[in-house]
Amino acid sequence: xxxxxxxxxxxxxxxxxxxxxxxxxxxxxxxxxxxxxxxxxxxxxxxxxxxxxxxxxxxxxxxxxxxxxxxxxxxxxxxxxxxxxxxxxxxxxxxxxxxxxxxxxxxxxxxxxxxxxxxxxxxxxxxxxxxxxxxxxxxxxxxxxxxxxxxxxxxxxxxxxxxxxxxxxxxxxxxxxxxxxxxxxxxxxxxxxxxxxxxxxxxxxxxxxxxxxxxxxxxxxxxxxxxxxxxxxxxxxxxxxxxxxxxxxxxxxxxxxxx
Length: 259
Hints:
Layout: H1 15-18, H2 27-56, H3 63-74, H4 85-95, H5 104-118, H6 130-138, H7 144-161, H8 164-174, H9 184-192, H10 201-208, H11 223-239, H12 245-253
Helix pairs in contact: 3-8, 4-10, 4-11, 5-7, 6-7, 6-8, 10-11, 10-12, 11-12
């Protein structure tokens, strides 16, 4: 009786292994390792340079005292932390969506603005983070590339030295809302006759839009422009999950009792 024997394909031995030769890394792997090492060295170098640069900048331990000095000079009053919830959400959603992330994002966000400044323009590139805007207000410095770099560095130092709530409170307390109102306490009382913590979404979204251009968006003089800005703030609140579209529409339809 014949038995069928199934054929099995023979496994071919690696010629290098048969000859006892050690397999060498492929050229592209060596190049990849070199590139990764170079990138790592560059990152370490940048971190060292950034650390040295931050050490040369002024300290920020007096930031809260500087805010109080601004308000004392302008006739305002400090509103202690925590910041009013609705106004805080409106400002963060509109001006700095990455505010509650790691301070490293301040550097990343500011890098583009530093590049714009490097092109030679003396104008503010715009889009600064809240910490950077606070640094610019509390620690005046020159313009251009070096001024932008200093603003970025001081913003990082503020983010590392203070909590998010403290930074946001200092920012809201020190900005100008138009019509002689410095700080959120004066603005809420001056425009609507209420405490900042009792602002409605309609009122908070109106105030949050003013610091960017207090004269252009003055609701007592340019109501249509102020309302357009308010609509933008409300849309940002929807985009960041603080309001539904329907709630934003209701806030926009609110009667604003300007004093």
